[in-house]
Amino acid sequence: MVGRRVRSRRKWRRVLGVLAELEERCATPVGKLKQVVDAMAVEMHAGLASEGGSKLKMLLTFVDRLPSGSEKGTYYALDVGGTNFRILRVQLGGQRSSILEPHVEQQAVPAHVMTSTSENLFDLIASALKEFVDRGEDGSKTLVSRRGELGFTFSFPVKQRSVSSGILIKCTKGLHIEDMVSQVRREVTECLEQAMSRKRLNMRVAVLVNDTVGTLALGHYHDEDTVAAVIFGTGTNACYWERTDAIIKCQGLLTTFGGMVINMEWGNFWSSHFPSTSYDTDLDSHSSSPNDQGFEKMISGMYLGEAVRRVLLRMSRESDIFGTVPSRLSVPFIFRIPMISAMHEDDSPELIEVARILEDDLEIPDVPLKVRKLIVKLCNVVTRRAARLAAAGIVGILKKIGRDGSGGITGGRTRSDVKMRRTVVAIEGSLYTSYTMFREYLHEALWEILGEDIAPHVILKVIEDGPGIGAALLAATYSKDSVCG
What we know:
By secondary structure, the protein is α/β, with parallel strands linked by helices. The protein has helices spanning 2-25, 30-49, 111-114, 118-135, 188-198, 211-222, 278-285, 294-299, 301-318, 337-344, 352-360, 369-400, 430-434, 436-450, 466-477, and strands spanning 59-60, 72-80, 84-93, 103-108, 148-154, 158-162, 165-168, 203-209, 226-232, 236-243, 259-263, 423-428, 458-462.
């Protein structure tokens, strides 16, 4: 009996050692975060200087003006981002923030259509869009005499050719349309407009954007001090407003407007200053995109739970914290963010929610309280690192455009006149809105990095349905008609 107790204590110390080592490796002191900030700003500058000059793609969106608040009329949006798509009708009253409650319809894309042809996919979408338009605002059949103006959010990697056109770079999120990524690549908007023509739908794609650009547009519509937008959800990305003369790689090709929205594709950012661990290395090597999307794998909702699972699996193999190693603990991505946040934020003395999740979702009953506490600490370590790195990413953008109080990197010039200027960053995504501890850690780090003199001037503002309403606003901004219906 004594021998068993000694062995048990030895195994428990080993488990605590694993947690202590992880905590040390995941440490994000403000000095390290500032190194990440600098690295982000430098990579942004390099990505704007030349194609392929940085891990950040810094894609041109050709969105060179944002909603002013004077837009008026009825506009449509189509949000395609995975196995579902949404259609919206948005009515604008001509005054900033005067958006009536949008009419929204969602439809699933059958699995066989996701892997068929572009014609099948876009015919399905165009049919649903025509039915939606024909029904009108009150649900009854109506005749639309004027051409509809559509904002098209297509949340897949796209190389833009203009504000309303682009080529699909690669298929992701279950989409595999061979004729769109073959040697002769199909133009995304052309596929949709041809389908609308086949369905005799009188509609034009005014803009083609991704979800971050739509979020920035809606944020700017509500608050003209909005200069950037970030998505924190299953995945993550950011875009921001850049001055024309800072976009070195496309000098001479840009419009006469003062700037353009840049789609950073920041999920692929990487820095030697990241607090990386062996678990991150293993996660990356076993992922569907090795050596790719490094930043996303450290901060996005899709991967946080997987990092926790990998650490917990090692702990269970090196000790008997669960008795035998639970079979479900070996299932990749079984830990989802709602589970992680619920366990992390369980404030009951006996950690009842932690016990429920372990039993119901992982089939691990009767877990001792000290192990449940260990799991909460593990969630805290992984989430805190992610949130603080996310904050560093945001400040990196601010530094690049001279909004962090340091002058920043602005096309080779320093700017001292914008140090104290009010700056709004639009935020969307359930990782930020629904996970309280992630949000609080991000805000804490933002203040640490910026300091108490600058931080009050930086506002993170939650934006709801940027990919939908924002796309409709951009359709209004780029509409060839002043009023469309």
